[in-house]
Structure formats: C-alpha cells, structure tokens
Amino acid sequence: MEPLEPFVDPLPLPSRLVAAEHGGRLSVGIRAGRHRFHRELPESPVWGFDGTVPGPTIEAERGQPVSVEWRNELEGSFPVIDVVAPAATDADGVPVQCVPGLSGAEPSRHASGLTGQTVVHLHGGLTPASFDGWAENLFAPGQNAEFQYPMNQRAALLWYHDHVMGITKLDVYAGLAGLWVVRDERERELGLPEGPPFEVTLVLQDRNFDVDDDGRLTGRLVHKTDPDVMEAFPPFTVVNGKVWPVLEIRPATYRFRVLNGSNARTYRLVLVRGGKPELDRFTQIGSDHGLLRAPVPVPGDGLTLASAERADLLVDFSDLAPGSELTLLNTAAAPFDGSPFPAAKAESAASLDGLLPYPQVLRLRIAGDGVSRYSIPRELATDFEDPVADALACARRRAIALVEREMEGEPNMLTMRELAPAAEDDEGPLVTVTDGEQTTRYRVAAAHFEDATTFFPMLGEDEVWQVINLTGDTHPIHLHLDPFQILSRRPIRHETPDGAIGERDLASTVTLERDPSDELDHAIDDNERGLKDTIRVNPNELVEIAVRFTAYSGRYMYHCHILEHEDRDMMRPFVTMPPELMPFMA
Ligand SMILES: [Cu+2]
C-alpha cells in the first residue's frame, strides 16, 4: 500500500518561455516558492527557477542567440533537510532510504545554513566558458548574472540546473532545474510533433519527505543517505513535479521527450498494459544531443536513462480504445550496476534491497477521439556519421580511472584519477592496462578537482577518451561543451589490491577481457549511437568516446552526473585551447 495514492494528479506541464517571443532576451528569477508534490501532501517549500518545480521550459531556435539574466532572488532558510541516517535499515529491517522521515538522524547544520549561493549551467549547451556555469563562480542572493547562449547547435532537449561546488545535489534537489529545448529546420522538415498537445516533456526525479509525530507526511523535502549508500535514492518518483501522475492522451502518436533529472537514480522504463510490456509502442528518434541517424527500438528490457541522459521517443497509441490504460514502470534497482531485469516481470520490480519500493512512474489513460498516426521517417539526422576507430588511430588519447576510496569513519569517496603514461623507470604505484599484446603503464596525474589541469584539448582536433570503471556501480560521465560519440564499450578484469586506492595514488592491473563472474553484456545500445553528452560506464567496463571540441576556448568541467559523486570528488577541469597558443604553453 503506497503512502500516497498513485495516478490521481494530472501530469503538470511546465510553463513555456519561448525566446523568440521575447526578442531572445529572457530574465529568470531564482526564487523560493511553494510546490505541492501530490494532492495528499501539504505544500513544500522549494527553491526554483521562477519559484517553480521544474522551472519554465525555455525554447530556443538554432542560430538565434539567447541571453538570460539569471536573477538570484533566493531568500529564507534552505528548503531541504539533509540527513545521514545512523543505520542503513530501520527496526523492521527496511532500508531507511525506502521510507519517509529522518530515520533518527540529526539534520545537517551545514545544509540548513545555506543562504542561496548559486550558479547556472546549461547542460548540453555549446556555451562560451564565461557563461558555462563554472562551479566556483557563484552569484549570491541579490546578484544577477547575464549569460549569453549562442545556440549554434542542433535541435535537442537540454536542461539548465544549479552547479555549485559541493552542493549541487542539495540545490537541484531543492528544485533548481528546468528544461531547455532547441529547435531547428531539420526537425520541422520531418514534421515531428512540436509543442502541446502531442509533444510532452517528462522530467523524472525522485524525492522524499519528512513526517510529523503521527507519521503523516509533511511535504518537507528530505535528502537522506545512510552509512552504506552515500547517494540519495528517495522512494517517490516525481514526473514534472508530481508524484506518480496521470496523463490523458488521445489515440495518436505522441512525442515524449524524457530527461532523467534525478540526483542518482537510474530508470529503466517499461510501458505495461494489462500486465504485459508493450515496448514496441516506443520508437526512439533522439538522444542527448538530438536526432539519431535512424529510428531505433528501445532495448528489450526497457529504456535505460541514468542521471542527465535524455531520450526523444515517438509513442504510438493510435490503436487504443478510449478508457485503455498503460503504466510506465521503472525496473532499475539502486545503486544501478547495469544488472538486467526482464521487461515481462516489470510489475514485480519492487525491491526494498534494490531501494525501489515503488516502481510506478506515470499512468497514461486514453480519452477522446482518434487522430491520424504519424508515420516515422526512415532517415533522421544527416549531419553526422558513426565514428571509425581506424580514422581515430592518431587521435590524442586520454585515460581516466573511476575509483571508490574507502574512508575511515565517513562515507566512501568516489573520485576520478586522470592517468598519464609512466616513465620507463617509474616504479609506481602504477595502473597497467593490457589489451592483447599491448600493455600501457600509467601513473596518476591528478586525483582531485583542485589538482592542476592536465587535459588541454585543442580546438578542432579529434580526441579519444577512455574511462575505466574500477568501482561496483554504473557512472554516467558527462562532458561539458561539445557532444561526443561512443566508440567502444568493453569488459575488463582488474586487480586492485587492498590499500591500492590512496589519497592520490592508485595501483591496479587492468586487462581487457571478461571476468568469469561478470554477467553484463557490455553492449552499446542502438540508442547510444547518437551524439551524447553523458555516457554510462558500467562496472568491469572500459568505455571509449570520440570527442572534438570545436568553438570555444576556456576552462570547462567533466564529471559523473550522479550529483552525490560530482560533489564528492568525481569532477575535474579541462581547458580547450586554440592550436596557435599551444607553442606558448610551458
Ligand atoms: Cu559516479
């Protein structure tokens, strides 16, 4: 029995802010507000763009610059109670993350002392460095920032959110996120649904709430972690700001544009009708940076979206009679490690151990008259090709290891280690990577955000970045600025001895072959063969991406998009350089 009745609140649609209707000049207040997450809940204090959750959806046109005056008008106390529960399970053995309330924890004084410093990043934006929202360039309440967004980029679903160093997880959880849609001529040539009612944006998030002395939900937002799990995986799935809403639709083709805007949770979405999965209603036409080259079905066990990933879906409801109901369910256990779950069992995906007490996401109910079906073109994007490994043989290569460092008396730290080729006489500690006959020896060149920059990509040059996951969880790795393409995803076996993950050092022996106990398929899904800005790197896996930075020089960031990881210390800078300055670099 759910603590809130599912599928009673209509799906809210965020307000639209069309840049062209304002001469390309927008002004958005960042404000405290009140928001009702469910009809049975009291209003929750929130911080939101325009005071709303999510913020207004900004719509822009390719090639038409947009300026936004972000006005920081935050005031009052921080709206989220941040707690680390004293134990991972309650007296009944239920994981504390699956239940509302503080679970006996003391609210963090540091979180309640926050006063509203913020900075805004447009995720997926090809934005000059000065306007990209560097995590340390904050503006305080009363201060404004006018950011210029050139919008020289293809049509895509982007999103804007707070990006403050160390507290992005709290600020985004408090409500500071909104969508940003870029449109272009190619999409119009294809006649894709644009705007209401047939284009529907869906922002998936998860939230938890406090309870009063009688156990009633108060609506007060709670960000709760526990001694075993340093990420928050709250029990209530929220779509466009409502817990388990319902959307009435006509029997027609809809365009669903989905963002996973959760702090940490990965969703694997399955559409179910009458107990059976109906995933063939989905055709995916786009991912993070817009259209794929051709439409693809979603993977057989469901559409997986880790934090910050997006999907552009055409969904065919045209054969359904009024009164038909479908339910979107999530089958991904948390923390997500890539483990499969059959779509046919989606209705029994609830799992307390998997921190997924309620798999339900959204109910769809057919109402009204039929509308003709949209026939899906066979060719979509024509402006990019699949990358060819041979053509990238001479590209600059960079390697990054993801590690989880055990900490005495505090939660583990997830960090990134930038690797540099080791000198021949370097005796270590070393990371060796063996691929067939070839072994590369690396030393750690950087371990923390504040360490010196080691990545200086040249504008216009191809690069191949290797991300080597030595942890037990899937990490969605996000690069700011230009999109990239996945080149390979391969299983690895690694030996990382006890104590080999130091404050800065790392010793590990990595071999590019499957560990006998590894059950993941390490496949690249068809829907990942587009232009991406966030890529999942599963356990026992090495992912290679091909990237070329094109337009803007400056200091940018790349990081894990699990916000609790990004804040603690899975984030690093890189500096894009015009080639003619390289000879002047020391
Ligand atoms: Cu991570």
Structural commentary:
- The model has no long low-confidence stretch (mean pLDDT 96).
- 3% of the residues lie in helices and 39% in strands.
- The longest helix has 6 residues, at 168-173.
- By secondary structure, the protein is mainly beta.
- It has 4 helices and 38 strands.
- It has a 9-stranded mixed sheet, with no helix packed on it. A 7-stranded mixed sheet has the order 15-14-11-17-23-20-21, with no helix packed on it. Strands 16, 18, 19, 22, 24 and 25 form a 6-stranded mixed sheet that branches.
- Strand 28 and strand 29 form a beta hairpin.
- The protein starts with 15 loop residues before the first strand and ends in a 10-residue tail after the last strand.
- Bound molecules: copper (II) ion (CU).
- Copper (II) ion is lined by residues 414, 475, 560, 562, 565, 570.
Summarize the model shown.
The protein is mainly beta and 586 residues long.
